[in-house]
Amino acid sequence: MEFKINKAILVLEKEVESMNVELQIYKILKDGNYHTSDEFAKILGISDKTVRKKINNMRNIIDVDVKKGVGYRLKNNKVDYTDKFNKKIQNTSLDRTNYIISKLITNEYIKIDDLSYELDISNRTISSDIKSIKQNLKKYKLDLKSTPYYGLSICGEEIDIRRYIVRFLEEKLNKNIFHKNIFSEKFNLISKDVLKFIQNNNLVFSDVAYINLVITIYVVFKRIEQGKYLTTFINDSIIYKDSDNIISFITSLNKKYYPKYKLTENEISYILLHFFSKRTFMLSEKRSIEIDELIDEVIKYIDLTYSLKINEELYDNLYKHLVPLAIRLRFNIPFTNPILDEIKENMPFSYNIALYMANILSKKIGCNIAEDEIGYLAVIFEMYIEKNERLNKKRVLIICPLGRGTSKFLEYMYMKLFSEYIECIHTVGVMELKSIDLNKYDLLFTTTKLDVDVGKKVYKVNCFLNEKEINEIRKLFIGDDKAKFFISSDLFVHIDKTVTKDEVIRILCNMIKKHTNTTFPIYQKVLEREKLGFTEILNNIAIPHPMTKDFNFNKVAIAVLDNKIKWDKKFVNIVLLVCINDFDRYSEVIYSNIFNLFCSKEKLERLQKNPTYSNFMNLLKEGEDTKWHMKKYLKRQWS
């Protein structure tokens, strides 16, 4: 899902101007006048509580006069304390390494003695920080070289150095960390020009892609300003197709901001490559047959494994994402995902689908897909699933005899608590029941005891709900009893002896066959599917399933093994035999909770210590609140 592009330029402007908060407060106080905490808060975009806390921390450096109702004033504004605040910024190992890296990427050489003086710490501490920097550089095939009389410098291929610099700057901007010696006013001006070009040419970029592109262009200019040109030759027909206007724009930036340094054709190709690898491709453009064939192959496995009903919208969203992804993979262009941890934590089911898809893609195209990219794929699946769930919302009727005011309050409260499950909600008094068609409603609640049988199940509730009642009502919406329907006690087994893969499959198939009395050849169809591979989804979990869906039941059988067995290439100790014919809203919720359970190291340990059906179901139910909070999170992040 894409953010509004106009918001991105505001983010960049704010981040480019941002510095350490305490230093900003000090700069305001230097005028010698009184300033209120509210005034600071409005200028800096923080809470007045944070302002008060920061000023309190600053008192070990400066003397501040406080007058109630008037504000704060610097007592001695004749002395400049700027250097002391700058040194305070670099008071942790992480702060120091960030500062050292910023010096390394803006200077050809740096000396340890100079760093020691600037940061007011020992050479020994600096050397320790440099060791951690060298370890990080190895990930990018880079190293630190020490040259006598000159100092330290980053060494490696120029294209790798640029990848490192872009990633470093991107991470800092995402965390609102700004290094004044890196960014000049030109960065801000270039960002505005790039945005204007994107808008004028109706190009589509996500916020993350836009910021990455601006940083990349800026780094190119800064590197050629230092005389550092690409040695790797970049040539690919896809980046030159229909790109005349982009080339003209890049050339105009060169003449406008760095007229003394001319971009080579190879440097222009490098920027073009990032344009095409970051933008979102539109469906109106000429389609790639290779990408279409790749998606067809992938969704075949996804449908077999997860029983997801792949519609045209999901297919198109995958296509729009995979076209630039293919370019990034071909040229090894990293693409940062600033909320990867949140995605993994809050979207476990969708992340596992994306991870499964990435494993298939990796084998098809012959290269690994980074976790950042998997996170973006997870968002595509999550929004598809979330949208499908909205189609299954319920119509709710609340019977309340306490008047219009209380009735409207109940409608508001239920919509606030359960909006993701409700299509519409109405309230009526007891006297109005006879004139209401109750068949139009899926759930009926009442705040009073009913003396008449209305022909449908009515749930008694209180006007004010406690946490327990809220959870009980939520279970009514998501179908709490469905979990037991999918995974009954006779479909759960703990195996404490050593078994083979084939034996586990046979045990689980026999359990489902006995439970359903089906004549469907489950075992044969599962073995047929296993020949295709790709049924390992995590390091310790396998999900075998039939090759076809010629059965009329939705069941999941689970085996918890004391001894790990080799499945395909990985060893597993959890095996889920999934037989889902109709992947509806309820099966998605249960499936999601299962994966949430198996993605939690703590829950897995609890299950392995007590591998019983009742413990498994209790752990599964713990996922319901996680799922609910995930929806709230999604609305905040992607709406």
Q: What is the tally of beta strands?
A: 13
Mean pLDDT: 81
Seen as an oligomer or otherwise, the chain set is single chain
Content of β-strand: 5-15%
Number of helices: 28
Instruction: Give the proportion of residues in helices.
Output: 55-70%
What are the segments in which pLDDT stays under 50 over at least 5 consecutive residues?
A: 1-7, 9-19, 625-639
Overall shape: it is: globular
Please give the order of strands in the largest beta sheet.
9-12-13-11-10
Structural write-up:
By secondary structure, the chain is an alpha/beta fold. 56% of the residues lie in helices and 11% in strands. It is built from 28 helices and 13 strands. The strands form four sheets. Strands 9-12-13-11-10 form a five-stranded mixed beta sheet. A four-stranded parallel beta sheet has the order 6-5-7-8, covered by helices on one side. Strand 3 (143-147) and strand 4 (151-155) form a beta hairpin. The protein is globular.
Layout: helices, strands, pairs:
Blueprint: H1 5-17, H2 21-29, H3 37-44, H4 48-58, E1 64-67, E2 71-74, H5 82-89, H6 93-106, H7 112-119, H8 123-138, E3 143-147, E4 151-155, H9 158-174, H10 185-200, H11 207-225, H12 237-240, H13 244-257, H14 265-278, H15 289-306, H16 312-330, H17 340-346, H18 348-365, H19 371-390, E5 394-399, H20 404-418, E6 422-428, E7 443-446, E8 458-460, H21 467-478, H22 482-486, E9 492-495, H23 501-516, H24 522-530, E10 536-538, E11 541-542, E12 554-566, E13 571-580, H25 585-599, H26 601-609, H27 613-621, H28 623-638
Parallel strand pairs: 5-6, 5-7, 7-8, 9-12, 11-13
Antiparallel strand pairs: 1-2, 3-4, 10-11, 12-13
Helix pairs in contact: 1-10, 1-11, 3-4, 6-8, 7-8, 9-11, 10-11, 11-14, 13-14, 14-16, 15-18, 16-19, 18-19, 18-25, 23-24, 25-28
